[in-house]
Automatic annotation (TrEMBL):
Known function: May be an activator protein for the gylABX operon.
Protein name per Swiss-Prot or TrEMBL: Glycerol operon regulatory protein
PROSITE patterns in alphabetical order: HTH_ICLR, ICLR_ED
The organism's taxonomic lineage, starting at the top: Bacteria, Bacillati, Actinomycetota, Actinomycetes, Pseudonocardiales
Domain IclR-ED residues, every copy: 70-256
SUPFAM superfamilies: GAF domain-like (SSF55781), Winged helix' DNA-binding domain (SSF46785)
UniProt-listed PANTHER family: HELIX-TURN-HELIX TRANSCRIPTIONAL REGULATOR, ICLR FAMILY (PTHR30136), HTH-TYPE TRANSCRIPTIONAL REPRESSOR ALLR (PTHR30136:SF24)
GO biological process: glycerol metabolic process; negative regulation of DNA-templated transcription
Source superkingdom: Bacteria
Domain HTH iclR-type: 7-69
Length: 261
């Protein structure tokens, strides 16, 4: 058994590993030491141990370090356990029962929202957004909840032309300027709303889930019946409060940090 004195060393090693994971390419030991405020001797020792264990790779010609194969294997094993769905399901179950509406977990898949989990309330409701269904991200509340926190260049890359803006019911943004205005509004508001954009007679409220780098990794949505002849401008703040609470809890569960509004 290790002693309690091993714990600070473990924490420093994990901090080095996280730093390597957060950089787009290899970094020097000096940079690691400077950014983590570590002595150089300690930094070299930690990098040596991580390299020996396969979690870091040393590039001698560049005098830099990057992630190793063991880090990739660990990440792949994590994904095989479907952690996002497992952590989200009980939260969605409670949300659906409490609000008596269908709750979803969705992620971005290119320019589409892909639904991973659906939980029905005690009184089941028939809606189009089932598990595995993909819908245009710019029309769905879940898609826009995530798009609102992406860099503008990334949004433009996902929806590069007017042809990218699929129309289902005549409602919703039809071009990039209209989408950007809506995303700005919803980012400030803290949640996204869809009123008949996908299917006439249904509306949704969604809030984003963030990873440890404050990036939108998913969205939690409530979908319910709502019919109005023209968009009525409802934003359902009471529903949004509960959806945001669930999204914030899932963010905490996955070790994430909410992005500033």
């Amino acid at each position: 058994m290790g002693s309690s004195s091993d714990v600070p060393a473990l924490r420093r090693g994990l901090a080095v590993l996280r730093l390597l994971a957060g950089r787009p390419g290899p970094v020097s030991a000096a940079s690691v030491a400077r950014e983590l405020n570590l002595p150089r001797s300690t930094t070299y020792h930690l990098l040596s141990e991580l390299t020996e264990a396969g979690f870091a790779t040393h590039f001698p010609e560049e005098k830099r370090y990057g992630l190793g194969v063991a880090a990739f294997e660990l990440g792949s094993a994590y994904l095989r356990h479907d952690p996002l769905e497992r952590l989200a399901r009980p939260l969605l179950r409670k949300l659906a029962d409490r609000m008596e509406k269908v709750a979803h977990l969705g992620v971005l898949h290119g320019p589409e929202a892909l639904y991973l989990v659906r939980e029905q309330p005690r009184q089941p409701q028939s809606i189009v957004s089932d598990v595995g269904v993909r819908l245009p991200a710019h029309l769905t509340a879940s898609g826009r909840a995530m798009l609102a926190h992406l860099p503008p260049a990334q949004v433009r890359a996902l929806l590069p032309s007017v042809a990218s803006f699929v129309d289902r019911t005549g409602r919703g943004p039809h071009n990039l300027p209209a989408l950007r205005r809506l995303l700005t509004l919803e980012r400030r508001q803290g949640w996204s709303v869809e009123d008949g954009f996908v299917t006439a007679g249904f509306a949704s409220v969604a809030a984003p889930v963030f990873d440890h780098g404050e990036r939108p990794i998913a969205a939690i949505t409530l979908t319910f019946r709502h019919l109005c002849d023209t968009p009525c401008g409802a934003s359902w703040p009471e529903l949004a409060k509960e959806v945001r609470k669930a999204a914030e809890e899932l963010t905490v569960r996955i070790g994430g940090h909410a992005a500033p509004g």
